[in-house]
Amino acid sequence: MKPINEVRSVMTPLNRKNVDTDQIISKEFLKRIERTGFGKYLFHHWRFNADGTENTDFVLNDPRFANSTILVAHENFGCGSSREHAPWSILDYGFQVVIAPSFADIFYNNCFKNGILPVRLTLAEIETLLSKGLETPQVLEVDLEKQIVKDEEGKTYSFDIDPYYKQMLLNGWDEIALTFQYEEQIAQYEKAHA
After folding, report:
1. Contact 103, 161 (CB under 8 A)
2. What is the Cα gyration radius of the chain?
3. How many CB atoms lie under 10 A from the CB of residue 15?
4. What does this protein do (predicted)?
5. 65 to each of 72, 103, 132, how far by Cα in Å?
6. Class of domain 6-192 as given by CATH
7. How far apart are CA 38 and CA 54, in angstroms?
8. What is the pLDDT of residue 178?
9. Residue 184 burial class via C-beta count within 10 angstroms: exposed 0-12, middle 13-18, buried 19 and up
10. Running DSSP on this structure, what letter comes out for residue 3?
11. Measured between alpha carbons, how far is 19 from 25 in angstroms, rounded to an integer?
12. At what angle do helices 105-113 and 163-171 cross, to 10 degrees?
């Protein structure tokens, strides 16, 4: 995984509540065996009309938010089934950070395991960010080390994160890479118990 510390980007304001994993990545796109290539299917049924043309009213199709790496959404983001394809599609699309007032537990944990920083802010803070972001594009700075989000006006929003997950993201470790940090001790144990 790629380490994450400071991410600066225009935010993509997804002003929708209860975005479930089937909306994030619809079931018909789950047949791939790779972990990559899912970004083009992110929010597919919102991004595209039934005839395959772009839905110009959907925020991801707004050129003002092109190349954004920060997604700001409403409460209960990632609810629904536990498909790991949801964070895969978010990351493959280019988002490194998802900010919301609340997340479904399985989705939240899958974000960390796949190199995405999920940030919880208060509902009032999210509504402020979404309101500003929908009015005019807003650049946010997310600092994982300091655990803050800063807007263009210099206002900062603090967030909590489990120290274990923080270290994993700062170092770009998944659970396998974390295990390799103890490779010498594992080898000693295996040698002693051969």
Report:
1. no
2. 18
3. 14
4. Catalyzes the isomerization between 2-isopropylmalate and 3-isopropylmalate, via the formation of 2-isopropylmaleate.
5. 12, 23, 13
6. alpha beta
7. 17
8. 67
9. exposed
10. -
11. 11
12. 40
Long-range contacts at 177-182 (CB < 8 A, ≥ 24 apart): 177/1
- Record the tokens describing residue 167, joined without a space: 């270290």
Residue 21 token pair: 């994993």
pTM of this prediction?
0.90
Q: For residue 73, give the H/E element and its range.
A: strand 70-73
> CA 160, 165, 171, 172 torsion: positive or negative?
negative
- Sign for the CA dihedral angle at 118, 123, 128, 130 comes to positive
Q: What are phi and psi of 54, to 5 degrees?
A: -70, 140
Give one DSSP letter per residue of 43-62, joined into a string. THHHHB-TTS-B-TTSGGG-
* Phi-psi category of residue 76: left, alpha or beta, with phi > 0 → left and psi -120 to 50 → alpha: left
Measured distance CA(160)–CA(46) in Å, rounded: 31
Q: How would you classify the pairing of strands 139-143 and 6-14?
A: antiparallel
The pLDDT value recorded for residue 184 is 82
Q: With a cut of 70, list the residues of the chain below it in pLDDT.
A: 177-178, 180
